[in-house]
Design goal:
The structure holds two protein chains of two kinds. By secondary structure, chain A is mostly beta strands. Chain A contains no helices and eleven strands. In chain B, a hairpin with a 5-residue loop joins strand 4 and strand 5. The radius of gyration of chain B is 13 Å and the shape is globular. In chain B, the strands form two sheets. A five-stranded antiparallel β-sheet of chain B has the order 1-3-8-7-6, with no helix packed on it. A five-stranded mixed β-sheet of chain B has the order 2-10-9-4-5, with no helix packed on it. Chain B is mainly beta. Classes of the chains: A mainly beta, B mainly beta.
């Protein structure tokens, strides 16, 4: 079945570092990928919609200059947390659905980001 | 008022019991997803449905579009079913999801 691969699964880094998270659709093309964030014991929150070949659409309250999204191909979207601070520590997860299909979205395994 | 309301928030059951989790939503949708999130964080899409009923193994999902209500049922529950179950309506498979707060299910042996 369709698989979405997310990398890395765990990151620990110092405050001020920029961190890049990759989301790949392994066996299908995805014109749209979604990036979510989840704080402990809270529900998933959509951060942005990543559109292949165009700018991402950010949800209200999400800083586009802080969370850079690049969707350069039909199988890869990246989220870069720039100048990360401890308050950016969270669980980040992406999802994608095959292009021109009515299949459910497939989720990556998530990235647990810890900023010291 | 939240756009998606799930109940119950927490549910503890004994192995073998029949489980029902309910979801009511106020947003206009064309599809509703049921997701399962395990303690490690990984999310599995269980169902995407837009009408009627779907069954996969011991899991059954139903939706009533007119009443804006969906239910997830687990028959013969097992400890490995312990997870957070999340209801997430959307406008379709390539549209963003709106998430409920989830139902934490614990099935004891």
């Amino acid at each position: 079945g369709a698989v979405v691969s997310q990398h890395p699964s765990w990151v620990i880094c110092k405050s001020g570092t920029s961190v890049k998270i990759e989301c790949r659709s392994l066996d299908f093309q995805a014109t749209t990928m979604f990036w979510y964030r989840q704080f402990p014991k809270q529900s998933l929150m959509l951060m942005a919609t990543s559109n292949e070949g165009s700018k991402a659409t950010y949800e209200q309250g999400v800083e586009k200059d802080k969370f850079l999204i690049n969707h350069a191909s039909l199988t890869l979207s990246t989220l870069t947390v720039t100048s990360a601070h401890p308050e950016d520590s969270s669980f980040y997860i992406c999802s994608a659905s095959p292009k021109y299909s009515n299949q459910p979205q497939h989720f990556g395994d998530g990235t647990r980001l810890s900023i010291l | 008022k939240n756009e998606v309301e799930q109940s119950p928030q927490n549910l503890t059951a004994q192995e073998g019991e029949f489980i029902t989790i309910n979801c009511s939503y106020s947003v206009g949708i064309s599809a509703l997803h049921w997701l399962q999130q395990h303690p490690g964080g990984g999310i599995v899409s269980l169902f995407m449905l837009s009408s009627g009923k779907k069954k996969h193994g011991r899991l059954i999902a139903t939706i009533n579009i007119q009443e804006k209500h969906s239910s997830l049922h687990i028959t013969a529950s097992h400890p490995r079913d312990s997870a957070v179950y999340i209801c997430a309506p959307s406008r379709g498979s390539n549209y963003k999801l709106t998430f409920g707060k989830g139902t934490l299910l614990t099935v004891n042996p």
